Amino acid sequence: MRTEYSKRSLSMFIAASGTIIEWFDYSLFFYLAMSLSHTFYPEMDSSLLIVLGTGSVGFLFRPLGAVVFGHIGDAKGRTVSLVISAGLMSLSMLGIALMPGYDTIGIWGGVAVLLLRALAGFSVGAEYTGIMVYLMESARPHRRALTASWAAANSEIGALLAVGSSAITTSIVGSAALNTWAWRIPFICGAILAAIMLPLRKFMVESPAMHKKATEMRSEIVGKKEGPLTYVLRHQRRSMLVTFLISTVGSATYFLTITYLPTYIETVDSGDSQMALNYGIIAAVSAILVTPFFGLLSDLIGRRRSFTVLLVAVITLAIPGYSLLTSPNILVLAGAVAVLAIPAAGWSAAAASAIPEQFPTQGRYSGMAIGYNLATVIFGGLTPPLVTWLIQSTGHVLAPAFYASAVAIIAGIPAIILMGDTVKDQKRK
Known about the structure:
84% of the residues lie in helices and 0% in strands. With 429 residues, the chain is an all-alpha fold. The chain has one domain: Growth Hormone, Chain: A.
């Protein structure tokens, strides 16, 4: 029994660590967007928008990866899917790190980076959702949110490592070198981290729910001649809708207040890369610190109540928070960065368990992966270039705040109404 518990704990730790790599990769690309624009599109006025758009292309391929890896995860096991995705992530980051710039091969460097971002998006199509499923299925029933919030916390650790490695690199070599060649160093570090996950994930054991349900699940699906994707599309449409709505709010708030924040500060305040990255570190650290507390809160008061509190916080803090980001006072600016990051982190913490709980074991991986990744494409990956365009076209620096509030209201309210709350149901029993 002790050995089985130790194996389970090790597997959960390895699984949760995987989100560090995924969000290191995606956050890094947006943190270093200015440097990438200098390397691959130095002669274009819209170079920053092109790079942000390139980053977003990766998200367009996440639904395809969700279908493929979701099927593998439901049919072959959670761990198999996670091993394959780690290898593809490492390959993508290494390829970008070694890619020659515009001065060497012209526009083809940018084209190759675009293709590598597509590969990265495909590879992580079911990475985060697979880890959420694994942790939720492995957790004790009364601590599912706290356990699954590891995935959310580690995604923020990934963002912290991305912005931290970028800031350290900048402090050592300077902003000029960062924009010419040194941006490659953090990408190489990310490729190494992803490669390390390959042997580690082979030590993982299947989640109890997957192990218990594997035989009956496969016999049920095979008997009906349905694959996992067909099964969820026919029987779990409401759960997929709720997943999409919850993930819409989470994606928009996370990418605006954590991932995109350094680029926003650098663009609006005309600050240097070092200053902007330092504020990105503050946002990431704030998110990491509060995430487990919101996971525990969700276990104590229920998913619906937690989401309601967080939704009110997102809506009421967006406009005053972004207004303070233009302050010349360093302490005020740092406080605004931290305050904006907290509800975004809290929403991700609650969502980490609430989303997989909407599904039965059958088709859970596929259904989550599709609903989550569709939301991430539209309201995650497309958010940075969209709000950059809104700022440039309207001249209104509060465009991100209005955008975040609108998304939260339109998607958050129906999500809270439609979702099932397993904590509430357990207390009734």
